[in-house]
Design a protein that fits this description.
Strand order of the largest sheet of chain B: 6-7-8-3-9-10
Order of helices and strands of chain A: HHEHEEHEHEHHEEEEHEHHHHH
Structural class of chain B: alpha/beta
Distance between the termini of chain A: 23 Å
Structural class of chain A: alpha+beta
Strand order of the largest sheet of chain A: 2-3-8-5-7-6
Largest sheet of chain A: 6 strands, mixed, barrel
Number of strands of chain B: 10
Strand content of chain A: 15-25%
Largest sheet of chain B: 6 strands, mixed
Number of helices of chain A: 13
Distance between the termini of chain B: 24 Å
Number of domains of chain A: 2
Oligomer: heterodimer
Helix content of chain A: 40-55%
Number of helices of chain B: 7
Shape of chain A: elongated
Largest interface: A-B, 22 and 24 residues
Number of strands of chain A: 10
Order of helices and strands of chain B: EEEHEEHEHHHEHEHEE
Shape of chain B: globular
Strand content of chain B: 25-35%
Chain lengths: 385, 223
């Protein structure tokens, strides 16, 4: 065992090879699984009985491209759909990117014209103030509920924003609520500005909507509601003009995309593992072959073949296992540090796979040349240069 | 003690089988001091390796204390190498990853006998006797040739073997150191009854042994 301690540089290189292999597989799989869990969690928050009515073919084979340039829904559609059996809540949404101004500062935001039911449907949470109500919608009140980042950027804190005025497209709105920070990756949910659609008539005179969200009365009625809504809309639109998607389908599509992403990540991780493995193989084989002469000397003074194998096996195991353990610890640290920015997680299976393969490679190539050396007669081995 | 009967040894060189040793029969008795002489390439080292159980003959039998060792298992053969035989090589063949002390006690690590012998103490005694105690924690390659050879002899003696084989032990040493080593071996034979078989190509060194064997082109000859 001391032999490996003495060849510090070589040992470190071998461990490094194992480290790289294990680390890349663990991280890659960690990212993949973390992402999947994150997205599934997001969907769980929204609930299974959520149905989204969108223009175009929606999140189909085109993967979202069909959303652009499709039809617009209107109040008639909303009222017909709300009469479908088992539709518990409905919220139409009009969306426009705008600039919000206050206190001499400007911030880009997503203006969402909708009804008060939206907050319940998408499970919004406030950190200050209140949601607007049905009364506000009826009375076309110029009030808004803003995302955390809008409040912070324009007023410093959420509490400071309450009851303050914000200018949007030359109109003044009063902030009556600030949403909790969502912090979703790559999206800008914290830049949302929700207003009663009725107060946005200058921007949306025809009262058209980009999407309609609804919640069915229960998880069981979702499929039926979907079909009934489709039937209603087909009376007015062509099948290609809109899509009615329940959460589960969307989730399925996203999960299959993630599935492919995961395969890609695993492939990349595997390549690193293979490269790491080849590194281990080379170093181990070279190191041990170099010690053929030493094996001969030990055999000459009474070591059995088993003694030699045991000596090199323990050494190889130590180096491989040590390298693997260090790798897992480093991977855990990296994942922990990345948590705020990216939902990565360590998955036991990835650890087992990476660790197992690295150790197997290290041990085999640490022992195989030793066995070859031990099988020689002592004199043959000692002649080895 | 050691008897060789009709030993031959072949080596594969490329595609050809070259016979290095031909039909060698000899007996080494206890407490003998034998000098094995031959020119370079005569096969003397090969013969000694076979006598010392470091290599296997292609044909013939070897008897140790009357028992045929050619069919022994790896474990039993290793035991013989460990307990009965001590080898001293021309190039010392010490392990540079270990200290001088660790080199000397190394054979005891492979011993399977449960004895009360304190090998560490014995190693210290040998180091003192050979005048290299102060080098015990050094790596072998930090010692002079003469000192390394003494370490090698100490290693060969640690298990109190019945027989020591020395393959050109002075080959890599200057004459002063070489002389000391030869005297050491003589002392082991004379005062401690250790059987010594020494290979050399120098006649005056061989003459100091009690019996001489001559080998030429792989045959034992009478000079």
């Amino acid at each position: 065992m001391g032999d490996f301690r003495r060849n510090k540089a070589r040992t470190s290189l071998t461990s490094l090879g194992i480290l790289i292999g294990v680390l890349s597989v663990v991280l890659m799989m960690g990212f993949g699984f973390g992402l999947k869990n994150y997205i599934n969690q997001q969907f769980d928050t929204l609930g299974k009985n959520l149905v989204m009515i969108l223009p175009g073919s929606g999140f189909g084979a085109t993967g979202g491209a069909g959303l652009i340039g499709g039809i617009q829904f209107d109040e008639k559609d909303v009222s017909k759909i709300s009469r479908v059996k088992n539709v518990k809540q409905i919220a139409p949404v009009f969306m426009k990117t705008i600039k919000a101004e206050a206190n001499g500062k400007t911030e880009r935001g997503n203006l969402l014209g909708t009804t008060d039911t939206t907050f319940e449907i998408i499970n919004s949470k406030l950190q200050a103030g209140n949601f607007f109500t049905n009364v506000d919608v009826q009375k076309k009140k110029k009030v808004v509920v803003v995302g955390a980042q809008i409040a912070e950027k324009l007023f410093g804190t959420a509490n400071n924003a309450i009851y303050k005025t914000v200018r949007i497209q030359n109109q003044r709105f009063m902030i009556i609520g600030v949403l909790e920070k969502i912090g979703s990756i790559g999206a800008d949910d914290d830049l949302n500005i929700l207003a009663p659609y009725t107060s946005l008539l200058s921007l949306n005179p025809n009262k058209t909507f980009f999407a309609i969200y609804l919640k069915s009365s229960s998880d069981e009625t979702v499929s039926q509601v979907k079909m009934d809504v489709k039937t209603v809309l087909l009376k007015r639109y062509k099948a290609d003009d809109f899509s009615v998607t329940e959460q589960a389908e969307l989730l399925e599509t996203i999960n299959s995309i993630i599935g492919i992403l995961n395969i890609a990540l695993i492939a990349i991780g595997s390549i690193s593992l293979i490269v790491g493995g080849i590194g281990i193989m080379n170093i181990m084989y070279a190191t041990v072959t170099e010690r053929t002469k030493e094996v001969g000397i030990r055999r000459a003074i009474g070591a059995t073949k088993k003694d030699i194998l045991y000596q090199f096996l323990t050494g190889a195991v130590m180096v491989s296992v040590l390298g693997g353990l260090v790798a897992v610890v480093i991977a855990a640290i990296i994942v922990y540090l990345i948590q705020p920015f990216f939902p990565a997680s360590i998955n036991a299976f990835s650890i087992i796979v990476a660790f197992g393969i690295s150790s197997a490679v290290g041990i085999f190539f640490g022992v195989f040349p030793a066995k070859k050396a031990a099988d020689l007669s002592p004199v043959e081995a000692m002649r080895y240069e | 003690m050691i008897e060789l009967r009709k030993i031959c040894k072949d080596y594969l060189v490329g595609n050809d089988n070259i016979r290095i040793l031909h039909d060698i029969s000899l007996v080494i008795k206890e407490k003998e001091y034998v000098g094995l002489m031959g020119a370079s390439g005569s096969g003397k080292s090969t013969l000694m390796h076979i006598m010392g159980f470091l290599d296997n003959p292609t044909c013939g039998t070897i008897l140790l204390d009357g028992k045929d060792v050619s069919k022994l298992s790896d474990g039993k053969l290793s035991k013989i190498r460990n307990e009965c035989v001590g080898f001293v090589f021309q190039q010392f063949n010490l392990i540079n990853n270990l200290t001088v002390f660790e080199n000397i006690v190394l054979p005891s690590i492979y011993s399977r006998e449960k004895t009360a012998i304190d090998y560490k103490e014995k190693a210290k005694e040998l180091l003192t006797r050979f005048g290299i105690y102060n080098k015990k924690d050094y790596r072998p390659n930090k010692l002079s040739g003469g000192q390394q050879q003494r370490v090698a002899i100490a290693r060969a003696l640690i298990m109190s073997p019945k027989i020591i084989f020395a393959d050109e032990p002075t080959g890599n040493l200057d004459s002063k150191n070489g002389e000391e080593i030869i005297e050491l071996l003589e002392e082991l034979n004379r005062d401690f009854g250790v059987t010594v078989v020494m290979v050399t190509h120098e006649e005056d060194i061989a003459r100091r042994a009690k019996r001489q064997l001559f080998i030429k082109d792989g045959f034992l000859v009478k000079k």
